Amino acid sequence: GNSVTQMEGPVTLSEEAFLTINCTYTATGYPSLFWYVQYPGEGLQLLLKATKADDKGSNKGFEATYRKETTSFHLEKGSVQVSDSAVYFCALSESIGGGATNKLIFGTGTLLAVQP
Amino acid sequence: ETGVTQTPRHLVMGMTNKKSLKCEQHLGHNAMYWYKQSAKKPLELMFVYNFKEQTENNSVPSRFSPECPNSSHLFLHLHTLQPEDSALYLCASSQSWTSTDTQYFGPGTRLTVL
Prior knowledge:
The complex is a heterodimer. Chain A is an all-beta fold. In chain A, 0% of the residues lie in helices and 54% in strands. Chain A contains no helices and twelve strands. In chain A, strands 2, 5, 6, 10, 11 and 12 form a six-stranded mixed sheet that branches. In chain A, a hairpin with a 5-residue loop joins strand 5 and strand 6. The radius of gyration of chain A is 14 Å and the shape is globular. The N and C termini of chain B lie far apart (32 Å). In chain B, strand 4 (31-37) and strand 5 (44-50) form a beta hairpin. Chain B is mainly beta. The radius of gyration of chain B is 13 Å and the shape is globular.
């Protein structure tokens, strides 16, 4: 079945450092890919998404490019801030029930801790 | 700010109790979802509703019973739960059921089963 693998955390960085969180996927067909972020005590918020190969999603300085050839969707940010400290989830969307609905398959999440 | 609200935010219950979780979306969406987030495990889809009809039950035990009276409201009725059911229960909604649609999540209900 489809699956998502993302790098183990925690990732600890100093403020203004460059961030990469790796995400690879296994899927049949052409899923949409997402990054969600979860701040402490809160639900998941969509960070960015890409719906087809070579698409680049971007938001709040974060970027990720849908790479079909390497089945990857790595999250990057050029300069992290303390306020970026959170858990980041990579996910893919697959159709189920003969296309009657879709479900998100999540990676295990990567905790990012940014120190001043 | 989220267009998906969940109540209560925290719930502690005994194994013999009956309780319900409520989710409401204010986004005009047609699909709603229940997910379970346990410690050290990926988020797991539990149920999906499209236009009030259940389209997915991901092999969830019968002690969890969903209800969707309309496209804006989703409930999860709980009875005779086990301690291992303690988790964060997240509700989500999306405009439709296509794979390109974004799912918007509520803040979750933190459930503790004693």
